[in-house]
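Schema walk-through. Below, the input block comes first and the output block second. Nothing else is stored per chain. Lengths vary across the set, and this one has 100 residues.
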Amino acid sequence: MQNIYTLTMETVGNPDRQQYVPITNPEDFWGFSIGELKNKLLRWRDFNTVGFGNWVEPTLYLNGEQIGYFSYNLRLWKLPIGEPQVEVTQNDYLRQRVNV
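--- output ---
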């Protein structure tokens, strides 16, 4: 079975820029790899001029199971959101591919 990574991107307004509502509509993304999904998010973020103050950390799913979330700089972190933050490593990617 091919691994499918999915997430939904949402934004919020940034009051520092006089934005009081989300600046985009929610949008679903999917990909066969985390790298593919990161490239899509980068293009989406830049196209929509989403800044740090607009970013809502999206939860990443692998075949429907929550595995982490992306920060604004597109680093992938383990759940739960909050402290301490633990970054997902390349070894974690490989382990997920083997175990699924």
